[in-house]
Amino acid sequence: MSRVPLLAANWKMFKGPASAGEFLDAFLPTVPEDGPEIVICPSFASLTAVIEGCAESRVEVAAQNMHFDEEGPFTGEVSPSMLVEIGADGVVLGHSERRALFGETDEDLARKVPRALEAGLTPLLCVGETESERRASDTEAVLSRQVLSDLAEVHDSDLARVVIAYEPIWAIGTGLTATPEQAGEAASFIRDLLRSRDPGQAEAVRILYGGSVKPANATELLGLDDVDGALVGGASLEPGDFAAIVAAAS
Ligand code: PEP
């Protein structure tokens, strides 16, 4: 099955609205008329500015987190319908920084992923192993636990709407990149897990690779059979670098 490649820019806690606007001024003119799907994931503070800035383009915008409830006494949180109301298209869920630094659990994600889908948002679910888990040959066990628990409450008929980013934690922001063999094996393993849920839907799910993707390694990683795009952190902060990664997928 042919899947439309997807390139997502995870800006983390960088770029306020003014600097986001400068990025868009440089990046949007480089966006090809058709080709890969492009999603920018700014901080909450810059979401509206980026949504408005991308309104006349085909670039989509996703938040970096979301609560599973619609409203309530949850200081500092944002709900699915709030993201929809401001015009967001998707939401990154389960990024390793949220899991490791902010205590996000697979139980939380099992509630967040279906809520995002119900709201009409595309969930970009991040999964991946630590360096010690890889050394202990636990990569597949970690991926099985994360993928199967985080998607447990998603109806089979909605699986194809989920995007999964395989992000080995040891490769995020470190300059280390998974070898094409490691990235390809993990992506194929994730697709097999999805096949165990629903063989037909599994073929349609986009599986991204994330972890120090740069213009220099993008072509090789994006060429892998089960890799349908990339979630890019550091290199997505520079419009020229992100444009070069988009071009590698075009
Ligand atoms: C990320 O933030 O998800 C990421 C992959 O970061 P980097 O590209 O900087 O490793």
Structure description:
The chain is of the alpha/beta class. The chain has one domain (6-249): TIM Barrel, CATH 3.20.20. It is built from eleven helices and eight strands. The protein has helices at residues 17-27, 44-53, 80-85, 96-102, 106-119, 131-135, 139-150, 180-197, 199-204, 215-222, 239-249, and strands at residues 6-10, 37-41, 60-63, 90-93, 122-127, 163-166, 206-210, 229-232. Strands 1-2-3-4-5-6-7-8 form an eight-stranded parallel barrel, surrounded by six helices. α1 links the parallel β1 (6-10) and β2 (37-41). α1 (17-27) crosses α11 (239-249), α5 (106-119) packs across α7 (139-150) and α10 (215-222) packs parallel to α11 (239-249). The protein is globular, with a radius of gyration of 17 Å. Phosphoenolpyruvate (PEP) binds at residues 10, 12, 167, 172-173, 210-213, 231-235.
Q: What is the compact description of this entry?
A:
This protein is 43% helix and 15% strand. With 250 residues, it is an alpha/beta fold. The chain has a single domain, classed as Alpha-Beta Barrel (TIM Barrel), CATH 3.20.20.
Assign an overall shape.
globular
Radius of gyration, in angstroms, nearest whole number: 17 Å
Q: What are the low-pLDDT stretches, counting only 5+ consecutive residues below 50?
A: none
Q: Oligomeric form of this entry?
A: single chain
List the topology elements.
Elements lengths: L5 E5 L6 H11 L9 E5 L2 H10 L6 E4 L16 H6 L4 E4 L2 H7 L3 H14 L2 E6 L3 H5 L3 H12 L12 E4 L13 H18 L1 H6 L1 E5 L4 H8 L6 E4 L6 H11 L1
Parallel strand pairs: 1-2, 1-8, 2-3, 3-4, 4-5, 5-6, 6-7, 7-8
Helix pairs in contact: 1-2, 1-11, 5-7, 7-8, 10-11
Bound molecules: phosphoenolpyruvate (PEP).
